[in-house]
Specification:
The chain is of the alpha/beta class. 43% of the residues lie in helices and 11% in strands. The chain has 7 helices and 4 strands. The protein has a 4-stranded mixed β-sheet, covered by helices on one side. The termini are far apart. This is CRAL-TRIO domain-containing protein. It comes from Citrus sinensis.
Length: 229
Amino acid sequence: MMMSCEYMKSNIDEKEETKIRLMRALVEKQDPSSKEVDDPTLRRFLRARDLDVEKASGMFLKYLKWRQTFVPNGSISLSEVPNELSQNKMFMQGFDKKGRPIATVLGARHFQNKLGGLEEFKRFVVYILDKICSRMPPGQEKFVVIGDLKGWGYSNSDLRAYLGALSILQDYYPERLGKLFIVHAPYIFMTIVFVQDKKLKSTLLEEIDESQIPEIYGGQLPLVPIQET
């Protein structure tokens, strides 16, 4: 069994290496600055697109264009995020058992940025992510976040900012978040289940019969507007 697992891992690694070479040739042809990017970075974009070279290349080239525009100096300076820093809500210390750096965010200290606006918040997100990634030891590519919601309430709710942060993390820092721990969460959060797209139907089937699952999720029932029920 061990030999079989090692063989499978070897095949996967070899497949990824081949895909990386193909991707590198494609992106370097379209953007010569890609030559400065290492293989692990390309691998993360590949994995984020299930090793589809074309899709991963498109995602990566979009990232390069965004980076050149949004972070023209190569990094975000403290002077670009003064209002976000003043909330003193983000911390970084320690490593988990896998060697992943740990960041802690205190949700109750976040308030909508009325001075710098959403753009400053986005710069703050990039500042944070770059800072965390710079602390990763050799061979490590992921980090861990502890999101503390103690004291969090309506005044801290900032949907545009949350979606902005999620978009940046998903589109420009793929395969970086190793795990997110939500602590001191309101009880209602305990009933929430996050479902992977690949496991959507199978997860729903654990609790709901197929005949009662909406068609858009692989079931048999058409969606019915609530006013028509």
